Amino acid sequence: MDLQVARQKVIELRNLVNQYGYEYYVLDQPSVPDAEYDRLMNELLALEEQFPELTSPDSPTQRVGGTVLDMFEKVEHRTPMLSLANAFNDQDLRDFDRRIRQIVGDDVSYVCELKIDGLAVSLKYEDGLFVQGATRGDGTIGEDITSNLRTIKSIPLRLRENVTIEVRGEAFMPKRSFEALNKAKEERGEEPFANPRNAAAGSLRQLDPKIAASRNLDIFLYGIGDLGETGITSHSEGLDYLDRLGLKTNKERRKCGTIDDVISFVNSWVEKRPHLPYEIDGIVIKVDSLEQQAELGTTAKSPRWAIAYKFPAEEVVTTLLNIELTVGRTGVITPTAILEPVKVAGTTVQRASLHNEDLIREKDLKIGDKVVVKKAGDIIPEVVNVIAEQRTGQETDFHMPTECPECGSELVRLEGEVALRCINPKCPAQIREGLIHFVSRDAMNIDGLGEKVISQLFTEKLIADVADLYTLSKEQLLGLERMGEKSASNLLQAIEASKANSLEKLLFGMGIRHVGAKAAKTLAQVFGTMDRLAEATAEELVAIHDIGEKMADSIVTFFQKEEVHELLKELKAAGVNMEYKGPQPVLAEQVDSVFAGKTVVLTGKLEQLTRNEAKEKIEALGGNVSGSVSKKTDLVIAGIEAGSKRAKAEQFGIEVWDEERLLEELMKQEV
Ligand code: IVH
Fold it and tell me: Do residues 112 and 255 share a domain?
């Protein structure tokens, strides 16, 4: 066969194999027997072997790459990968619906989808070609797991249209593959996976793509990272578009016009759930209109336009063996239930937080009691209640101590708090917990530095504060239990890489009281550098949207401490970045416009602009667009049929403009 003929044949075979693969893996409707598919694939393999110049990265023969990676590269998500707020009952769903209607009005419809229990991934296609796949990571930075994702046969290596797009979905392991894998693992004397989710995550985190390829993983896509110029106006159209591109979506979705419809869809799945070939842990409910989604916006972690209904968790009975105390990063003493080990929702549970003393009294817990345990949200173990009828009289009462179990200093209960605290700033437990927080995902995100390694480093006196992390040597790490060459050098590399993090990561990691991840980001954006923030006054801080008095005071007090300055000096000397590196929001004071620094609410229907366009333009001019009218609102833009928000604005004496006035002002600013 000459090259020309072979090229033609290869194209023909690829088209057939792709089509049959699509029918089998994506549509779940094979049109030819497996043997026919295998025959064509083998023929293609043989031809590509004979004419290596004909192989191409999107050939179905090229799913499993030959190289084993050293470690996964980090990937930045251009649009953050958010997670979802949870609902646990009908009331939570009704509250969600009410919040939505308050903001966008009554004309809302929802799309309900199954909540697949796997791991969130993002897939990038360029001109139709699959080029990169990544994990969610901390939502902003994930890991490049392209070579593992390529092995999932329901992920097309080429789309049916040559578009550049980023799509998102859930990679998972079907129940049957999970059972077979665990059986094989047990036969080899290996520890089985706790559940299909862990099995899928474990498979995709293997550095050798052959392992992922052997695990029969699958995927459902449920979203598009950036809709760009697609012209799509609703989530349901977006899903149909994914179908047209040849991507696999879940067909058990339903558009619902009312929350009652949503609730009945949710309830129908409580019964049907066990019969599915894959695990789901709930139902995701999303506002369908993309314009409404944009109007609702997101909080730091999750969109306001979607919620995850979680199915009730499995409950089991076990014995409360003891109550131990742990000291947290801020000195709070938390009692922890030590339980007779018991299996719940796939994993063995032996500890559960009891939060505080009041909760122990409220639940009337005694040591030795039989208790009901579940995993809240299927993840966090929780003691639900005591079975008082089964008491034998041998049970004993628990009393909180008066001294810190770690450093012995006297515990205090601060005004207005339920928790007892150790207020000794040198308490080793607080320092250790602070270190664990510093390296955690939303903070400096140092892979390989978990609770165990930090505790060891701290006990061995190799680190006393966060700056010491940057002085660790390979020899010191190799001295730790279970630390090999490879892990030690990966760890050093991860520590080194963290020096380049943008300011908000460091800021959050330093654990300033009341400063969460979102506030840290705002502060980093507004001040740009650590030095400028350190000099900020409480007045400057409260002037920032989202920063309240309590947080402002806490920030000022923090930067007044001599030891904080010492620490910052050491971190700087180690080369840790102290500047904000993300996109710069438009700061009100930098813009000379009528909208600068104003809180604006859009309501009613606009005719010339979409709400989202109006929002973007106002924000570009330094305005802050909010969803609901309050005393803080400066201006309301009322389109046609503006209802309660307009009335509320008038009641508060807030300025109201119509669309024409808005357009006039925008023209003046030429945006
Ligand atoms: S939408 C911004 N839809 O559930 C909305 N998520 O915390 C992003 N999940 O991390 C999520 N099935 O991994 C969405 N049909 C579905 C889903 C789904 C599973 C996962 C996803 C996400 C988590 C929610």
Answer: yes
Please give the residue range of the domain that contains residue 104.
Answer: 86-310
Confidence class of residue 546 from pLDDT cuts 50, 70 and 90? confident
Which residue's entry shows tokens 């009281």?
A: 513
Give the residue whose CA is nearest to atom 9 of ligand 1: 115
Q: Are residues 290 and 156 in the same domain?
A: yes
Q: Please say if the pLDDT value at position 443 is more than 80.
A: yes
Q: Distances from the Cα of 213 to the Cαs of 155, 249, 446, in angstroms?
A: 12, 21, 28
Degrees to nearest 5, angle at CA 558 with 553 and 560: 100
Question: How far apart (Å, rounded) are the C-alpha atoms in residues 40 and 17?
Answer: 7
User: What is the distance between the alpha carbons of residues 447 and 441, in angstroms, rounded to a whole number?
Assistant: 8
**pLDDT, mean of residues 526-554:** 91
| Domain limit, last residue, from 250, 276, 310 | 310
The span from the CA of 95 to the CA of 85, in Å, is 12
User: Among 84, 173, 219, 296, which residue has the most ligand 1 atoms within 8 Å of its CB, making it the best to mutate?
Assistant: 84
Q: Are residues 210 and 162 in the same domain?
A: yes
CA-nearest residue for atom 12, ligand 1, is 115
Please tell me what DSSP assigns to residue 221: E
Residue 57 lies in a domain: yes
Q: Which phi and psi angles does 422 have, rounded to 5°?
A: -95, 125
Mutational test site, ligand 1, from 79, 83, 290, 311, max ligand atoms within 8 Å of CB = 83
The predicted model scores a pTM of 0.64
Does the structure show a pLDDT above 90 at 120? Answer: yes
* Bridge partners of residue 119, in order along the sequence: 171
**pLDDT band per the 50, 70, 90 thresholds, residue 5:** very high
Taking the CB of residue 450, how many other CB atoms lie within 10 A of it? 12
115 has catalytic annotation: yes
Answer yes or no: are the C-beta atoms of 515 and 551 closer than 8 Å. Answer: yes
The torsion region of residue 223 among left (phi > 0), alpha (psi -120 to 50) and beta comes to: beta
Q: Which atom of ligand 1 is nearest to the CA of 281?
A: 19
Q: Return d(Cα 153, Cα 300) in angstroms, integer.
A: 34
Same domain, 660 and 617: yes
Q: What CATH number corresponds to the domain at position 368?
A: 2.40.50.140
pLDDT digits (tens, 9 = 90+) for 256-315: 999 999 999 999 998 888 889 999 999 999 999 999 999 999 887 799 999 999 998 788
Does the residue 407 lie in any domain? no
Paired residues of 601 in beta bridges: 626, 636
Number of domains, the chain? 6
Q: pLDDT above 70 covers what percent of the chain?
A: 98
Write out pLDDT tens, residues 518-529: 899 989 999 999
Q: Are residues 192 and 325 in the same domain?
A: no
